[in-house]
Amino acid sequence: MSKCEKITDFGLYSFAHEFQNPQPYLQDLAIYFANLKNISDNGVTLFLERFCQGCPNIKHLLLDFYKGTNVTDVTFMKAIVDINQSFKQLETLDIELTDCYRITDYGLKVFNAENTTNLTQLQKLVFDFSGCVKITDEGLKILAETINTKLINLEELKLYVSGCTDVTDKGISELTSKRTLAYANLKNLILYFTRCHNITDDGLRLLSENIGFYFPQLKKIDLRFASCKELTDNGIARFAQDIGSQLKKLTDLSAHFNWCERLTTNAFKQFHWQIIERMPQLKSLTNKFSGIKNYQPGDLNQVSDMIINHKDSLNLEYLSIFLQEIPEFQDYEIDDFFDNLGDLIPELFLDA
How many CA atoms lie within 13 A of 12 on its CB side? Predict the structure, then answer.
């Protein structure tokens, strides 16, 4: 239904009415409400209620409200209540609320112990609050408390709060500072803090220390801090050192620090030095340092040399580096990169 701008509440309910008879064989359900400008909380909640009643055996659910300018806390709260009551076999829950700017911390309060009693079997949880500018540290605290106490089988957590400028270092601490049964099974952690301008080196340190100490079983991490203007070279170096020292089961690491205006080429080199030195078990490494300052031609070659010097211990099968919009970067460095590493790493990608 995405971009069907003439759909109204009546149309939603009429469509959902067709599902009044149970659909016991339906296990995967994705509903897209993106850019529907003529629907309200009332229409969406009635629609979801009807769908939930008619599809009791859903295991994988996606609800996408992208740019739902009329979507408020009421929609989110009703969705969580209906999902908990209806879907007792749910394994994947993915709720996308990108640019739904009316969503607030108050709406997140519904994601509590009472409304997640039937969600303990969840293995994958995705919440996308990118652009929900009223989400703050308090919202992250609410989510973390429920995840910690109820979702004991969770293996993958994806939380996107890009553009939520009231999320700070405290929010990172609230999200990652407890060791619980829920996090004990977590294998994949994906957190997006792009354009969260109040996150500093302290927040990055808390994140790396906490996940290193509490979640040593992690196999995949994808962390995005693009355009976080308070991060510095020292913060990146400490982050890489902590991650590299403690996450010995990690095989897939992606870290984005592009367009962080205080970062220099030292952050780029220190990141690779710490990771290459401390994480020989890595199979996949992706990093973005586009826009870094003080780059000198040959800095990329230094990273290549680090890898070559550790070739006997490294297990890298995929390496992706982004160094866009760096005026000092020279074209010949691209050829050198592939010549130096082409025989060592099966899959190489460079965007510069």
Answer: 27
Distance (Å, whole) CA 280 – CA 340 = 19
Higher pLDDT, 163 or 25: 163
Q: Any residues with CB less than 8 A from the CB of 352 and at least 6 apart, and which?
A: 300, 321, 322, 323, 324, 326, 329, 333, 334
Query: Residue 50: its pLDDT value, please?
Result: 78
DSSP state of 30: E
| Cα–Cα separations (whole angstroms), residue 344 to 252, 308, 318, 341, 351 | 18, 8, 10, 5, 19
Between 191 and 51, the more confident residue is: 191
Estimate to the nearest angstrom the gap between the alpha carbon of 248 and the chain centroid: 21
Distances (CA, A) of 84 to 14, 23, 65, 108: 24, 18, 19, 14
Q: How confident is the model at residue 100 (pLDDT cuts 50, 70, 90)?
A: very high
Going by C-alpha positions, the residue among 84, 101, 7, 24 that lies closest to residue 48 is 84
Cβ count within 10 A of residue 30: 10
* Beta pairing partners, 222: 190, 254
Q: What topology does CATH give the domain 1-199?
A: 3.80.10
Number of alpha helices (DSSP H) and beta strands (DSSP E) in the chain: 12, 11
Taking the domains of the chain in order of start, what are their residue ranges? 1-199
The Cα-based distances of 276 to 43, 194, 242, 244, 308 in angstroms read 53, 25, 13, 8, 10
pLDDT at 22 over 70: no
CA 223 to chain centre: 7
d(CA 313, CA 124): 33
- pLDDT tens digits for range 302-349: 999 999 999 999 999 999 999 999 999 999 999 999 999 999 999 999
d(CA 92, CA 189): 15
pLDDT in tens, 30-59: 988 877 777 778 888 888 887 777 788 899
Q: Decide: 162 and 224 in contact? Cβ < 8 Å.
A: yes
Q: Classify 350 as helix, strand or coil.
A: strand
